[in-house]
Amino acid sequence: MGAHFADRLLSAIEDKGAPACVGFDPQLEQLPPELLGRAGPADAASDDAAVRALEVFGRGVIEVIAPYVPAIKINIAFFEPYQEAGIGAYRRLVAHARATGLIVIGDIKRADIGHSATRYADGHLGREDSADAVTVNAYFGIDGVRPFIAASGSGEHGVFVLVQTSNPSAATVQDVVMNGGGSFVEHVAAMVQSWAVDEAPVGESGYSCIGAVVSPRDTDSTRRIRALMPSCLFLVPGFGAQGRTADEVATCFRSDGTGALVTASRSIIYTQSRTPSRDWKAGVDEACRELVAQIRRVVHAG
Length: 302
Known about the structure:
Blueprint: H1 5-16, E1 20-24, H2 33-36, H3 47-65, E2 71-75, H4 83-99, E3 103-110, H5 114-125, E4 133-136, H6 142-151, E5 158-164, H7 171-174, H8 184-198, E6 210-214, H9 219-228, E7 234-236, H10 246-250, E8 260-264, H11 266-269, H12 271-274, H13 280-301
Parallel strand pairs: 1-2, 1-8, 2-3, 3-4, 4-5, 5-6, 6-7, 7-8
């Protein structure tokens, strides 16, 4: 039996000195021109050429960031349009990232029930080449999450349940006030906390293998969510290009400085598109080191 996911993640964070994660959301048109070749957006070359470019870019990003951060989040959506070739590249990048020592979060956002959920879970957590954790949707309730818990072994894999997201229209659902008081997102937070301790293994760290995706909108609401979920690690998207501030992110951590993994994506991997004359790996390197420094300051300030 392997180590509990939360314990492994916290150990990796301690080793790297910052709870920072790079999100890999590769858009073909923003890749460095030297990687595109005939797969450039202007001539829309074959899927195979596009997938090769995405995979070469992914391997380069992984090799640059691996010394600095404990984890990478790879978004499968950017590979699925290329059918089996894209899914193959996604799985090879997951395996490559794990081989470098990175903890890999598969950003798959799956949601279903019954046999469908079980097959999703088996496909993304039940294989030797699976990611260390995945993201899932809470809308089906525990029926949609329990198969992923089962596929996690004895907590060896993590499951990050969507609780609060950063998209503008999310408030039309998540901010609805419940009859008993409190917002819908607070109801979901309390529900996921109950799953974390009643349905899933809790590690020696006191954190469950069930965590939560929480994008902070303001410090007050984030403090309430954090208080409702003491046993859940937070995967925190939106730092950097999406505008989450240091103060907002700081409230995702518990008072001991643990409990969150902060993710930045576009601000790290697309530096070359902002400074075309620069070597793209050097840009990713500098941006990743700056992310680590910023997150260290956030944790220290908290």
